[in-house]
Design goal:
The chain is mostly beta strands. It is 5% helix and 42% strand. A hairpin with a 4-residue loop joins β8 and β9. The two termini are 24 Å apart.
Length: 182
């Protein structure tokens, strides 16, 4: 899909992508998704927002008590998206890339100074990359560090940063049980 078509679809209220299984998939705004890191290092893979303390990390499965693995996709305007964590505990909810130091956490809102809450979804072979659109120069690519169950921003999507490729999937209805995702 070329950039112009991608941008048109974002303006219409959805984002069209190819799924990891080669089928066309449409991401819809206001729907709930899981974000799974596709890096090649063994370890936890699902992005988990920890609303109690404003941090994020990776967890192995989509089961309780990890309610922060539910992410609502929202239109942030001008071709950007925002991810709102739907965790059970009150606290900051917006996925925030901090380009000044390469960290990632949760912000209380999407207004300045939290410019890192705006993301660009870029389709790549077998998944997507998520580019932080923060106002400060620095690392921009959401990087799941499966070996340490942590998340940060990478300078590039090239090796050694294999955790910059992600899969977005409609959130399954199996939060109480281990999920069997395709």
């Amino acid at each position: 899909m070329n950039r112009r078509r991608f941008m048109q679809r974002v303006g219409e209220g959805s984002v069209a992508l190819l799924s990891a299984w080669g089928e066309a998939a449409t991401l819809e705004f206001k729907k709930t998704y899981s974000l799974r890191c596709l890096g090649n290092v063994q370890g936890p893979r699902y992005l988990d927002g920890r609303t109690a303390n404003g941090t994020v990390g990776l967890v192995a499965r989509l089961v309780k008590p990890f309610s922060g693995t539910k992410w609502q996709l929202l239109n942030a305007g001008n071709g950007a998206v925002a991810f709102r964590c739907l965790g059970d505990v009150e606290g900051p909810r917006w996925l925030d890339g901090r380009t000044a130091d390469g960290s990632v956490g949760l912000a209380p809102n999407t207004r300045p100074p939290f410019t890192g809450t705006r993301w660009q979804i870029i389709e790549v072979n077998g998944g997507v990359t998520l580019k932080c659109l923060g106002a400060i120069e620095g690392p921009r690519w959401l990087d799941g560090r499966t070996g340490s169950a942590s998340v940060g921003l990478a300078q590039t999507t090239a090796p050694p940063f294999t955790g910059t490729r992600w899969e977005l999937a409609l959130y399954p209805h199996c939060i109480d049980e281990p999920c069997s995702l395709p």
